[in-house]
Specification:
This protein is mainly alpha-helical. It contains 22 helices and no strands.
């Protein structure tokens, strides 16, 4: 983008392209997606990816390569360059650089810290006070909590800072005054990277307003931030230590929770279920299957249709199963590989099950209740597949009998009709 803009000018060797000309060629959706889901596993030494035609790109999931953007930002902020700092921030360059601090690649983090250093220098030399006060304070606040050189910052922190910048760029937002006051008040203290930002408690527990729209906006801010911030085991531990997931399970059934935020809560739980550490938290500390059964009871639903509710619950349970079974297969492959290397036969397990002894029964019980009245063949086929896999991996006869009994009690109402239709078609 930089060189394309430069060579498009008549006197390319005399004039540097402006930041507007550089960012004109960027796709807004792809840059926004990069801020929400930064590719934290990409390294500078990674091989060059295969070039894909633009018509085949999936833009909702496509994102910009940090190896390209950070290098461009670094050269763009060179010492002799004169830039408008507020435009650099408005276009999302500062947010993208902060998001890069959660990368697992030390060289990418080092490059991001260098970009922040150069931007801080330009802000100090800016002509207008509004370019200096808040943004230099934000960068110094990030630096205040670092305990080692080139430190990795967890995604739950970088996503919070990115979301805060988005609000600070919109003075008409109902969250503007609260976010700005929070950032300014915290600049006098070192940033605590070992704990969740206190703003989460403000959003969910300390909101002092009678305006329900503002109240819902605080909830939406916190939920979208937590959903995008759950990227690794460290993020799960930070949130679990502060009781975030227990709070969300309680908030879901609260009459103060808007329907849109209930959907976001289910998205957070589904994102958590994609991580092995998240599955352990949900199953062992949050009693997720008991909570799911409660949602399936005939209680009055608040602003959530029954079809939408069951669709979200099915997505959560399906994700739980996929994560647990993927980890189970990896453990079995590792056990077979270790026994093959040693030349010994693998010892016969006294009892065989997936994850923990009651997991298969609880999973099938909840999944059967969800698909009981379902008319979608895909879901019923998935249910049958899960039942078969769980029974094959369960060695205890009593547990197998209980699972089969549960399957008979919760057999999908449309299963017989679909089987007869399928056989008739053959």
């Amino acid at each position: 983008m930089f060189y394309a803009s430069k060579h498009a000018q008549k006197l390319a060797f005399l004039k540097m392209p402006t930041i507007e000309e550089v960012f004109t060629g960027f796709e807004g959706k792809r840059l926004a997606n990069a801020l929400s889901s930064f590719p934290i596993h990409v390294t500078l030494s990674s091989p060059i990816v295969e070039v894909i035609p633009i018509e085949q790109l999936n833009f909702p999931t496509a994102t910009y390569d940090p190896r390209f953007l950070l290098s461009m930002f670094y050269h763009f902020l060179s010492g002799h360059a004169i830039i408008m700092c507020h435009k650099f921030i408005d276009y999302g360059a500062l947010s993208y650089t902060i998001a890069a601090l959660s990368s697992f690649c030390p060289r990418i983090r080092e490059l991001a810290y260098q970009v922040l250093h150069r931007l801080h220098h330009h802000l100090e030399c800016a002509n207008y006070p509004q370019d200096r006060q808040l943004w230099t304070g934000l960068i110094e606040h990030i630096r205040s909590g670092l305990t080692e050189a080139n430190q990795r910052i967890e995604s739950v922190h970088t996503v919070f800072l990115v979301r805060a910048i988005e609000v600070l760029l919109k003075p008409l937002s109902p969250l503007f005054s609260s976010v700005r006051q929070f950032i300014i008040s915290r600049q006098l203290r070192p940033y605590n990277y070992r704990s969740l930002p206190m703003f989460y408690r403000i959003c969910l527990h300390l909101v002092s307003t009678s305006n329900m729209q503002t109240y819902a906006a605080f909830h939406k801010f916190a939920l979208s931030w937590i959903n995008d911030g759950l990227r690794s085991a460290a993020d799960v531990r930070l949130c679990h230590r502060k009781g975030v997931f227990s709070d969300l399970l309680l908030l879901y059934n609260s009459p103060l929770c808007a329907a849109e935020n209930r959907t976001l809560i289910m998205q957070v739980l589904t994102t958590l279920a994609q991580l092995p550490e998240g599955v352990q938290v949900l199953c062992f500390d949050c009693a997720i299957f008991a909570w799911l059964k409660h949602q399936l009871m005939s209680v009055p639903a608040i602003d959530v249709s029954q079809s939408t509710k069951k669709s979200l619950l099915y997505s959560l349970v399906s994700t739980l199963w996929e994560t647990v079974y993927r980890v189970h297969l990896k453990k079995e492959e590792a056990a077979m590989a270790s026994s093959g290397d040693s030349g010994e036969e693998s010892p016969v397990a006294t009892e065989r099950y997936i994850f923990y002894r009651a997991f298969g029964y609880e999973l099938i019980d909840v999944l059967g209740r969800i698909v009981y009245k379902s008319t979608e063949k895909r879901r019923i086929d998935r249910y049958v597949e899960v039942c078969d896999t769980v029974l094959q991996n369960t060695s205890n006869e009593l547990t197998c009998f209980q699972i089969k009994q549960n399957i008979c009690y919760n057999l999908p109402a449309q299963l017989e009709t679909m089987l007869s239709t399928s056989n008739g078609g053959k």
